[in-house]
Amino acid sequence: MEGLVKMVTEMGLPFAYDHFAEGESPEPPFLCYLIPGSDNFAADGKVYHKGANIHVEIYTDKKDPVLEQRVEDVLDAHEVFYNKSETWLSSERLYEVLYIFGWEA
Known about the structure:
The protein is of the alpha+beta class. The chain has helices at residues 2-10, 65-77, and strands at residues 15-17, 30-38, 41-43, 46-49, 51-60, 82-89, 94-104. The protein is built from two helices and seven strands, in the order H-E-E-E-E-E-H-E-E. Strand 6 (82-89) and strand 7 form a beta hairpin.
């Protein structure tokens, strides 16, 4: 997953896998990435090609289209096909922009 970490680093935000430790979360914007499951391809009843589902979560305290474009430019440069969603986390008072894509393991 070195390539994934390199790509996330190119996004230019503080980041952590899954979450920051309690009390160590930076000021927004920041991102978390996680691998919630596999995206394997089967052939002859076996895993023929291993892949992973990736979530990249961008957290901001206000809508930031310029930041979103910067993240999307990195994904595009790496030829990543992604889907995007957005939600307001009222308990955290943050926007979460979620990018979901597959990654070759």
